[in-house]
Write a structure and sequence with these properties.
alpha+beta
Length: 89
């Protein structure tokens, strides 16, 4: 994950733990690769995808998983960061 300079270590760890728990390796696919996403946390704690790149099947999977994520730490509101998800064996 590439956090902005304004994020402290604890905020970075909260985001990493939450995202990587929400986006696990998809068992239903044989597609491999990486997905990079520029994300923002809105005022309701929901993740907004600003930009997402990667293999289409994997980006759709990551986007669907990220829509379920909610952060309850309101100090994260408005934070933008880049997350990388690695789906290689």
């Amino acid at each position: 994950m590439n956090p902005p300079a304004s994020m402290n270590l604890m905020q970075t760890e909260i985001i990493q733990k939450t995202l990587y728990k929400a986006v696990d390796f998809p068992e239903e696919t044989t597609v491999t690769g990486t997905v990079k996403a520029q994300l923002n946390i809105d005022e309701n704690g929901k993740v907004t995808i600003e930009v997402i790149n990667g293999q289409p099947e994997l980006t759709a999977y990551v986007a669907a998983r990220l829509k379920r994520v909610t952060f309850h730490d309101y100090s994260l509101t408005g934070k933008t960061f880049i997350a990388k998800f690695d789906f290689r064996n």
